[in-house]
Amino acid sequence: MNVEVCKNEISLGVPHTCKAYPVPGGKTIYKPEGLIQKYAKTMRVGVFSYLLDNDYNRDGGVMRARLKYPGCNQTVTTNSGNVVTLGQEWNPKTGIFYANPDATDASNTQVINSNASGGQIKNSGVVNYLNRFGENGYKSYDPAAELYYSAQRYLRNKGNYAAYSNISDDRQKDSFPVITDWDDPLKSSDQNSFIIYIGDTNVHADIDLPGSSLGTPRVPTDDQELNVSSLLSTVRAGWSNRIGSSNSPGYLAALAYWGNVVDIRSDKSGPQRVKSFMIDTVEGGWYTPPNCEMNPKTAELCNSFYLAARWGSFDDSNGSKTPDRKPEWSTDLQAI
């Protein structure tokens, strides 16, 4: 289905989200632009996602595009000392997206078979990945908390965790970079950091995290700074039963809470924290309400995205380190 956008209606004019581009012949065409394009030169954006691997035991997430200004050409120096060029993601004269603006990260991605489909990566970029997500299908078993943890590791400058990014088949790359040589994303002590998580609440096996009481031997061994079990006890008032599809106690909310109240970068001056915002795609049309226990006497908040949004973004106005006042996390006191 094709949908016409940016149509110049006589009575309404062109929507404000459309930008004009002159074309030969004295004509003007309009193309829709979103927030990434609007703030392309003032706000850095990056992308993490799963590998396209349906193995239930595939942990974590991987970097697809490092933090960058999508509207500028720039360079970053990685933690190993390599200089990486990051390109402008669209032609400023036409609005047409470049297929491979971050060619260095694309060419540095591991290749299993150069002659196989998906061997050599020829696509890159923040917007390209978001626009083309799902073209090759979706990962079946999604460990949401482990994907979130991967992005949080980046902000913490912990470096890539190799077990998350190791591939055995080029198709697992999903036609986009798998970046393993990370850079330090914090450029100043007054930087504001955010994680916007897009997914569904039917998550699976997201238990292999530091401090997990349910984890397997695949729990990362290089991170002693947080304990998801103790954090979860605070967020869920002692509850630890499954609230996803399988093996998912809600560690996503525990990690979001930790990042919101703890200084995640002791090597930087001033407290460095990250606020989290959650977007539920409502898989299958079924929304998981916040209170979903069958027995109302033991009802608890059991939507992990709701918990992560609340505990991962509240403004601690009274120093309690908990979202104990609704104005700290909600502007709609009637509905939430």
Characteristics:
alpha+beta; 336 residues; two-stranded antiparallel ribbon; 14% strand
Secondary structure topology:
Elements: E1 18-23, E2 27-32, H1 35-38, E3 45-49, E4 62-68, E5 74-77, E6 83-86, H2 103-107, H3 126-132, H4 144-156, H5 162-165, E7 193-199, H6 228-235, H7 251-261, E8 274-280, H8 304-311
Parallel strand pairs: 7-8
Antiparallel strand pairs: 1-2, 3-4, 5-6
Report what the structure shows:
The chain is built from eight helices and eight strands; from the N terminus they run ββαββββααααβααβα. With 336 residues, it is α+β, with helices and mostly antiparallel strands. The strands form four sheets. A two-stranded antiparallel ribbon has the order 1-2. A two-stranded antiparallel sheet has the order 3-4. A two-stranded antiparallel sheet has the order 5-6. Helix 4 (144-156) runs parallel beside helix 7 and helix 6 crosses helix 7 (251-261). The chain is globular, with a radius of gyration of 21 Å.
